[in-house]
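== Sequence and structure of one protein ==
=== Format: two labelled lines per protein ===
==== Data for this protein ====
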Amino acid sequence: MGAKKLNYSVCIDAVFRESKLSFVEAMSVIHRLGYKAYEFWSWKDKDIKRIKEVQKETGLKTAAFCTEFINPGDPEKQQEFLEGLKRSMETAHVLDCGRLIVQAGWEYETAAKGITRDQHRCTFIDTMQKAGNLAAEQKIELVIEPLNLLVDHPGYHLSTSREAFDILEKIDSDNVKILFDIYHQQITEGNLHSNIFDHLNQIGHFHAAAVPGRGPITGGEINYTYLLQELADNGYDGYVGLEYMTAFSAEESLKKVMENILAVSYTHLTLPTKA
């Protein structure tokens, strides 16, 4: 058992994607199961006022959510992205959330305007420098997310963790880090242990799902029991977001994940008492 325990959150938009439950009903389910934090993708389609009410009722914490989906690598949209970021940070304050997820944009959008990949990259770095300055003022951390191109996101600008950490070195801000999505990086490059633990101080958030299939972390080729224990032993104190998908019961899958994988190390997790 690691001396340091981990914080877990449930990505409601992913895990409950096939569920008929409303967002706030899903919040109640994860609270009843013993999870203590949640996250989601877009905030613009959510009833933030009602989510805040349920958050107060349950004590659930908001681990993270995405900024507005505006391409930060497009010079023509830089100001639009920054204005959207300000709105996202206002929402983050409402939900007492200290972390926002930033995507690097789609190259097919910028390429259609004659913008090269290098120009996209330079603009993205400049945008994130400005964004980091705004985030510092608001005491919010931004995490940049690489995604896999091979299975899920062809045309996305940023795929490897090496590129992501290189970008981070060019941004002078303590408020910008990397979201290391274990699912995406296993598909893109593998070598998870070295890529994570050689850069753990640059990682502000994790996502977890099985490979192949993006299902619950109880299956697949990644040894999550080992990897999560390593994170605990190395003192990681951010969140690990469960961002998997299931065609079956979200509630049952979360129970199995808790019982079979997360029993390794918890902070934001409380095993329910059996009758």
